[in-house]
Amino acid sequence: MIAENNKVVSFHYTVTGEDGETVDSSRVRAEPLSILLGHGNIIPGLEKALQGKSAGDKFETEVACDEAYGPRNQEAQQRVPKKYFAGAQKLKVGDVTVLSLKQGGQRMVTVVKVGMTTIDVDLNHPLAGQNLKFDVEVVGVRDAEEVELQHRHAHGAGGHEHA
Q1: Residue 157 confidence class, pLDDT cut points 50, 70, 90
Q2: DSSP string for residues in 34-79
Q3: How far apart are CA 58 and CA 46, in angstroms?
Q4: Euclidean distance between CA atoms 90 and 101, whole angstroms
Q5: Which stretches of 117-158 are assigned E, i.e. beta strand?
Q6: What is residue 150's predicted lDDT score, i.e. its pLDDT?
Q7: CA angle at 94 for the pair 91 and 15, rounded to the nearest 5°
Q8: For the chain, which domains are there?
Q9: What is the dihedral of CA 7, 10, 16, 21, to 10 degrees?
Q10: pLDDT, averaged across the chain
Q11: Does pTM top 0.85 for this prediction?
């Protein structure tokens, strides 16, 4: 079966940044990543690279920052009260942490400055502005189930329940 929109594609990957360091790898986990292709569940450049592939295909692809996490916005900094961070007392400059948003949800941020009651953060994704290199092995391609199409993402072997 060929990977195309509305198919569930399972794959292992290793991603390296511009410095050649491994950023993330599914190979350290037992299961490959499974996504519903064509629904924006992964960065656009990798989603495009998976199109047309089949189980057993292995390939490398470079994804430009515009097709990954976008360019860095030098003005994307914000001063945030410490109460919005878990473990705020332990944070230091350069740490990547999760910011709890007032309206619900979370966002990855990088600590720029730590004050007495506030923390200045860089709101850019830590990989923003970087071209990324992916080493990919497609493990499987299957038809999506109707519920996956409705939910716009792949479900695991045991299904998926929404709150």
Answers
A1: low
A2: EEETTSSSS-HHHHHHHTT-BTT-EEEEEE-GGGTT----TT-EEE
A3: 13
A4: 20
A5: 118-122, 132-143
A6: 93
A7: 120
A8: 7-69+128-151 (3.10.50.40), 77-122 (2.40.10.330)
A9: 160
A10: 91
A11: no
